[in-house]
Amino acid sequence: MAKANITRDIIHRQIKERGALGFERHYHVTDPFIRRLGLEAELQGHSGCVNCLEWNEKGDLLASGSDDQHTIVWDPLHHKKLLSMHTGHTANIFSVKFLPHSGDRILITGAADSKVHVHDLTVKETVHMFGDHTNRVKRIATAPMWPNTFWSAAEDGLIRQYDLRESSKRSEVLIDLTEYCGQLVEAKCLTVNPQDNNCLAVGASGPFVRLYDIRMIHNHRKSMKQSPSAGVHTFCDRQKPLPDGAAQYYVAGHLPVKLPDYNNRLRVLVATYVTFSPDGTELLVNMGGEQVYLFDLTYKQRPYTFLLPKKCHTSGEVQNGKTSTNGVSNGIHLHSNGFRLAEGRAPASPQVELPPYLERIKQQANEAFACQLWTQAIQLYSKAVQKAPNNAMLYGNRAAAYMKRKWDGDHYDALRDCLKAISLNPCHLKAHFRLARCLFELKYVAEALECLDDFKGKFPEQAHSSACDALDRDINAALFSKSDNAEDKKGGGPIRLRATGRKDSISEDEMVLRERSYDYKFRYCGHCNTTTDIKEANFFGSNAQYIVSGSDDGSFFIWEKETTNLVRVLQGDESIVNCLQPHPSYCFLATSGIDPVVRLWNPRPESETLNGRVVLDMEGASQANQRRMNADPLEVMLLNMGYRITGLTSAGAAGSDDEDSSEGQVQCRPS
Prior knowledge:
Blueprint: H1 6-15, H2 19-27, H3 31-35, E1 37-44, E2 50-55, E3 62-66, E4 70-75, E5 80-86, E6 93-98, E7 106-111, E8 116-120, E9 125-130, E10 137-142, E11 149-154, E12 158-163, E13 172-176, H4 178-181, E14 187-192, E15 199-204, E16 209-213, H5 214-226, E17 247-250, H6 255-264, E18 270-276, E19 282-288, E20 292-296, E21 314-315, E22 346-347, H7 356-370, H8 374-387, H9 392-405, H10 410-424, H11 429-441, H12 445-458, H13 466-483, H14 486-489, H15 508-515, E23 522-524, E24 537-540, E25 546-550, E26 555-560, E27 566-571, E28 577-582, E29 589-593, E30 597-603, H16 618-629, H17 633-640
Antiparallel strand pairs: 1-30, 2-3, 3-4, 4-5, 6-7, 7-8, 8-9, 10-11, 11-12, 12-13, 14-15, 15-16, 16-17, 18-19, 19-20, 20-23, 21-22, 24-25, 25-26, 26-27, 28-29, 29-30
Helix pairs in contact: 7-8, 8-9, 9-10, 9-11, 10-11, 11-12, 11-13, 12-13
Keywords: Repeat, WD repeat
GO cellular component, one term: Cul4-RING E3 ubiquitin ligase complex
WD repeats: 43-75, 86-129, 540-569, 570-611
């Protein structure tokens, strides 16, 4: 956290009344408060799992929905139950929302009975019942500027829009994912951008998250209806359900190519929660079966494979979603035509010495690396990177730590760090070699061979080192094993886009949108999200300084947003924490999960020395969750039932990525 002059701000708050709200928002979540976060109260009243929570705009009411088909409205500041009503649903409630500008009178619920109900809390009655979905309704979304409108996402693959001003008791289909992804696709979550209410984010089956422009979709459909030839079609006509430019996809760059491997191990990738930052410039995604990802909606970047300068005195520039003047993107992207080598050139940046305090942090990270404390080393390097974002050595060292730890996604983060290090220092020997190793580990075998050959040309003294020889053998063995089935893959498109059957066939429009996907900015590791498909992740703080997420181990995790470092783990449930909803203006957090209670968390007094909910061994908890994510699903099920699985030992802490071969001296130690 950045240092602040709180005394000066307090004086300004006292002198200028207008500054009071800004003061409250700036300081309502700070690092000392996070360190003192503890359990304040448990709200009891439900008789089943509490699957959803929602604050009203003022933050003086909290609504909850449960497997018991009841919704309860609480006064969380006084720990009181204000209202409890049966919603009329016949199955588990998965989503609850206050309708904006209704005076907190109207509450909307969605449930596993495929129904969406609208309730008037003043009379405790259900006033509208919508039954248009054909499968479980997982999320409801509202928008501040659309007071009579809301949306739902369901496992029938449909996003529906509702307008309570309409006399009809039916909704309209806004987006039909089955037209793009086949009949098996399921919509799991959605949210509306708080700053641009025409921007809708949708999470569904698979690793891709979709952003839609609602206004463009409506205008497109109006124009289609008004067109004189709207009812006349030839045999070759094909009307697009969505206009060009109305959808934009986002994906963690390593996930599509990992998807076949995950499928073979019955590991499901599905976005279980999506939410925008308060200023609407960032999108946070809790990816079921994987990690938590943050996407920058302003400075977008394409997924990388690699960016390699052709000569030591030049470097290509990693650009955030931009292309060079000749139209060739300055990166190697996951396109169906393979990869393109960067043509851009820029002068090498001189290596700037670190200030003494950052040099000390780097040395601490190097010592942690030497002790094989990979996560501690990564966190220290990340702390230094935040303060010195143009230091190639820090990126190269962090890449080495990622490659040693081998959690899910670590090799891709290492690749990104290698690219950054090379762009800052084109003669960074270790970053060049690690780049080739990362490409190999990410299954880009041909690209790894080309990168290794380029490395040998640039650094001939390393061409016959033990590390180069070992990687060369690994690459050639992989190429040999692939040669047998190479013909089978010809004409099938890139592995990340192929469909596996007729029911989940992917349309051409969907293929194009996936190819144009943007990559993530930050990744947050430590939690586990494999058992439930309603697990949330949220921004915490008015400036979105922190990220919070539930976990299958009954804990919830808190990270610093900018460094991605884990700063706090608290035990929030006896089984699983699914829901985390931060208060709109206080350092106050509501959580729920399998237990039939709602738990409230806030900074505890400094006089309280004992906090039994704190998980002190955050590293151990994170490693256990990585093992859990990569365990056989049957083992996890038995583990949840209380059986001890001998196969889940610490030996599996590396995650799903393959072990490195002998590395030699070229990449063993950080610089």
